[in-house]
Amino acid sequence: MSSLSRELVFLILQFLDEEKFKESVHRLEKESGFFFNTKYFDEKVLAGEWDEVEKYLSGFTKLDDNRYSMKIFFEIRKQKYLEALDKQDKAKAVEILVQDLRVFSTFNEELYKEITQLLTLHNFRENEQLSKYGDTKTARTIMLGELKKLIEANPLFRDKLTFPTLRSSRLRTLINQSLNWQHQLCKNPRPNPDIKTLFTDHTCAVPNGPLAPPQVNQPITTLTKPTAFPSLGAHAPFPPGAAVAAAANAGALASWMAAAASGASTVQAAAVTPASIPMPQNQVSFLKRPPATPGVVDYQNPEHELMKRLRPAPSVEEVTYPAPRQHAPPVSLEDLPLKAALALHQGSTVTSMEFHPMQDTLLLVGSATGEITLWELAAREKLVSRPFKIWDMANCSPPLQALIAKETPMSVIRVAWSPDGNFIGVAYAKHLIHLYAFSGPNELRQHAEVDAHVGAVNDLAFANPNRQLCVVTCGDDQLIKVWDVSGRKHFTFEGHEAPVYSICPHHKENIQFIFSTAIDGKIKAWLYDNMGSRVDYDAPGKWCTTMLYSADGTRLFSCGTSKDGDVFLVEWNESEGSIKRTYLGFQKKLAGMVQFDTSKNHFLAVGEDAQIKFWDMDNINVLTSTDAEGGLPALPRLRFNREGNLLAVTTADNGFKILANQAGFRSLRAMETSAFERMRTPADSSLTKAPVPGAPVASVSCKVELGSPVRPSPMLNGVDPPKPRVDDLADNPRPWQLAEILDPAQCRQATLPDTGSSTKVVRLLYTNSGAGILALGFNGIQRLWKWVRNEQNPSGKATAAAVPQHWQPNSGLLMTNDVSGVNLEEANPCIALSKNDSYVMSAAGGKVSLFNMMTFKVMTTFMPPPPPSSFLAFHPQDNNIIAVGMEDSTIHIYNVRVDEVKSKLKGHLKRITGLAFSTTLSILVSSAADALICFWSIDTWEKRKSVVIPMPAGKVAVGDTRVQFHVDQIRILAVHETQLAILDASKMECIRQWIPQDSLSSHITSAVYACNSQLIYTTFRDGNIGVFDADTLGLRCRISPSAYLPQVNQGLSPLVVAAHPQEPNQFAVGLNDGSVKVIEPTEAEGKWGMVPPSEAINTSPSTTSNQTP
């Protein structure tokens, strides 16, 4: 059924409800399956009308649809059974047991037996688990609460729990409008017509004569006839000159035109290129003036006439109708996503974000480096990443080619999804837009590259004029352009006198139009024709403004900033083209432009003053605000997902956070395994899948408790529920087992090409682009491998499925550190890479050298020994500032530009072995060979605190300690040969430890967070590799040496491990023979084991007090 036919059903439901046809309302709700009336459902449940409850549910789901549906039906039938027992009606109870509950015995026979045994008890409360069962009314209320949670979590009820917001008696209004137009088109209109039927078109009787013959009924051209409901019909086929009548539903835009027509604005011409988009006749004739009709006022201005005609005319049969029912829940702070659910690191400044229109945890991110990334938030992983590159230089204009030759940065300005989620649009800071075809989580294919504008492309959006998918863009060249998805231009709209800042395509019924704003504060509106702009208004603030509609398309908002820094968030009255309300609560004089978004039909959100502020759409005062637990920039960017339960906000450390409400947290947990079918239990699967003949059948032993055939529960009713939460239903039902990789076939791996160097690898890095690996050898020589983009590896990123090339410049240079006079056995080589992969600095006991990554030439050297350098780290906000750890236990803060040590930090007792910055907390964390962790302010370089990592019994604090920040910039991973430790940097204390044990009892050689900080990869001296859950330090997977080392390994072991910057399940290890291996899980598994249950975790929670000042 088409979307308009679906809307027609809602109009009929509203009409039936207003006319008090209650039974018909609920029957249509059930038969259409479009709206689940929770109020009606609640009434029937509390009344115990179980047959009607199940009959109503059957219109939306069946028992075997999924685990949520099965749980819903089980809870209802179980309650029905208990009530029969409570009334001592054993015959009825047996009937329910046999007819209603037996179906669940297929999935859980033990549970069915226990339920049957209740028949033998005089009072079923004698059962321990039912001892708290109260009276029937209380039990029904508690069960109803459980059912509501299950219904909300059930994907089959998505978008069916809220009735759309409609004006009172909307169907009557549409019919009255139709009758008014019919009356205006009468050849002999009478001042007081007598409307007696809707079955034929209205026509006034000829004076002193018979009625004119009725006209033939014609179907509405814009409303597809549904299979179950007949069309209302738009009676009387109008002659071509009267085609303007079909535009009667474009009231919003038209009303703006009316107000604009009263001013002195001129109508600008639009340059239109040959197009393949056939425009509807009503749009072509939009401004044609129909002939004057007796009895109708003849307005002098054509557009003013149009506006008056488009407003609903008073009915010739004026009736007052009751107000519509209100199904939308009251505004509550619990509906807002206020709590931080996760923080992810993009690697460069995030400039634009957009959620997938249907997959609520799929987020598209654009960054200042030109890279776009697709994130699966539930899995905390990057699915696809595409760096900026020109696809076809030959099609680029000379100005663009000149910019590319100068290596001008190409920041992403805007990313957008098409309404169906099949295309991605990317607008760049210079000239270009890219269109990608999206066909799956890892399928992002280049589709079209367009040299769209001269200068920046300031905005991009998708639209569907005449049901053809198009892309609308605007730019610094003062133009708005419309393209099809193959990159062919259809329209160019001219008229703005300043760079166009933003666009807002929209539609009212069958009228498609575009709002645009320019940096001179002008708002214009355009139809897809050659007749220029229809609106010319000044935006509040008269500078940069963006416009957005509410989710249901009925309310229009704009948010902008004046040149003086004042913020204006307003709602527009579309019927008058005036400001309806102005929202309050902004800080004065902002240096920059704010971003806003709308959530469902309730809330507005604006990023300002390093926080997110929220408004109820109907209240001008701030509802609430949040700083998202800190780390936001002054003007954070933000974007809601479709459901409004997740909110993405940018952070100051080149990443973003996801805020969530309770439903959002459930969504993240429920979608963690991505596809819904992967969440099904074996019982669910048996409903649709037959067993494979000859396939082995796993024997699963589990304790069954009274509750549900889907998931055991300790109670038969909902009283005092120690029941599993609804979101736990998505947990994998298989018992946890440690994943062990013992054979090379159990994982994917690639050995990097041998470069002839047999020196051991002491430091290992991925390039930030994810396309290369850099290894520093014991001898001070650095080697670089790069993956190439080809059919085998279309992404060009590091992968175990393709072997990279050992890369060197044509000059044949090696990146060799100065080791003259250095005893390599005593040296501590160190390395750090700039964020843009342009430079690498390293040392191996001698001077620190800064290398150009393209030419391998030494750009400069600094910090000659003594003392030698032992660790290096770039300042995250200034590549010219370098923290240099020294062998003499000091830390030098060195400015490369002026060749000067700005500060010297003292606090350790032995050589520095680790450095890490947190911009969120404004601290530098250092570690040393004395097992001491120091916290330094990066504003004053003063020491705040020191923490000693507790040593296991019998161990002494010797050996290197490394530190690395979690992506949340709060938690720290500290790695020592005796342990893994997690510290809370905000509290400056150790909170959890893991000590080598069991199969992983050897000394730790290296450990690192995965790029999403959900895993920790750890290498051991005996060759084992452990994959740990980062939050609990529980072991998820053990990779045996036999899986990646040769059978005769001659003492081979991994010395260092590195994690891929975008692929959370890929890592690389550097061995003591100089070789490097990239390791990934098999495609079938896709990840390293499962999160272990709490009982399988053997760690030491710690809140250490052994701190030093």
TrEMBL record:
Residues 1087-1109 are annotated as: Disordered. Residues 34-92 form the CTLH domain. The keyword Transcription regulation applies. It holds the Pfam family zf_topless. GO terms for biological process: regulation of DNA-templated transcription. It is found in: Nucleus. Residues 1098-1109 have a biased composition (Low complexity). InterPro entries: CTLH_C (IPR006595), LisH (IPR006594), Quino_amine_DH_bsu (IPR011044), Quinoprotein_ADH-like_sf (IPR011047), Topless_fam (IPR027728), Topless_Znf (IPR048419), TPL_SMU1_LisH-like (IPR054532), TPR1-like_2nd (IPR054080). GO terms for cellular component: nucleus. Its main location: nucleus. Keywords: Nucleus, Phosphoprotein, Repeat, Transcription, Transcription regulation, WD repeat. WD repeats lie at residues 450-486, 594-625, 905-946. The keyword Methyltransferase does not apply. This is CTLH domain-containing protein. It comes from Brassica campestris.
